[in-house]
Amino acid sequence: MATTMLAPKSRSFQKTISYLRKYWTLYLMLILPIAFFVIFRYIPMMYIQIAFKRYSIVKSPWEMPLANNHGFEYFIKAFANRDFRFAVRNTLMLNLLDLLVGFPAPIILALLLNELPFKRFKRVTQTVAYMPHFLSWIIIYGMTVHLLAPTSGLVNIVLGRLGFEPIPFLNNSTLWVGTYVLLGVWQSVGWNTIIYLAALTSINPELYEAAAVDGAGRFRMIWHVTLPGLRPTIITLLILSLGRILSSEFDRPYALGNALVNNVSNVIATFVYTYGIRGLQFSLTTAVGLFQSVVCVVFLFAADALAKRFGERGIW
Question: N or C: at which end does the chain have fewer Cβ atoms within 10 angstroms?
Answer without folding.
Answer: N
